Amino acid sequence: MYVYFYKIAADNTKAYLTDWGLANLKETVSMTRGDHQSGALCGPLGGTPPYMAPECLVECENCSTMSDMWSLGITLLEMFTNSQAWSYSSMQELRKLLYTKETPLALTRLQPALHDIVKPLIEYEPKSRMNAKDLVILLKSKVDLTKRYGYKW
After folding, report:
1. What is the DSSP string of 44-70?
2. DSSP 25
């Protein structure tokens, strides 16, 4: 992931432009199970493997909204810790980490106050993951936008 900063306003307002890496991927890999080709694709059509949910990358299932919550959780984990979720050197190694349900190493670097936001997003079982509605409710209970930015949720 690349984050670019550039001052665009006179009042020191900051804008961040992000590139999640999809623009640089040149190949697409489809996964199969027996004679069944999955809708889960690694590459420009399906996502960036380190952010793909285990059910998509390992189990070759179609992605769902809960897969998106996993991706958000991994993204937040990396942003909050300034490190990759896992240390791996190949796609097979990443898939093995997900298959064996290894806890991301970056969780050890996460501030305790952020655990209850990130950890529920990266549960291996999709049904156990926090959904978007519950995440918004949790964030509303933790972040006072009026005090910090002058507006309400």
Report:
1. TTTB-GGGS-HHHHTS-PPP-HHHHHH
2. -
C-beta separation of 77 from 42 below 8 A: no
End-to-end CA distance of the chain: give it in Å, rounded.
29
Cross-strand partners of 7: 14
Residue 2 confidence class, pLDDT cut points 50, 70, 90: very low
18, 103, 92, 86: which is closest to 50 by C-alpha? 86
Question: How far apart are alpha carbons 8 and 80 in whole angstroms?
Answer: 25
How confident is the model at residue 132, as a pLDDT? 94
> What global pTM score does this model have?
0.70
> How many whole angstroms separate alpha carbon 67 and alpha carbon 51?
9
Write out the two tokens for 142.
């933790």
Which tokens in the block code for residue 100?
A: 């064996």
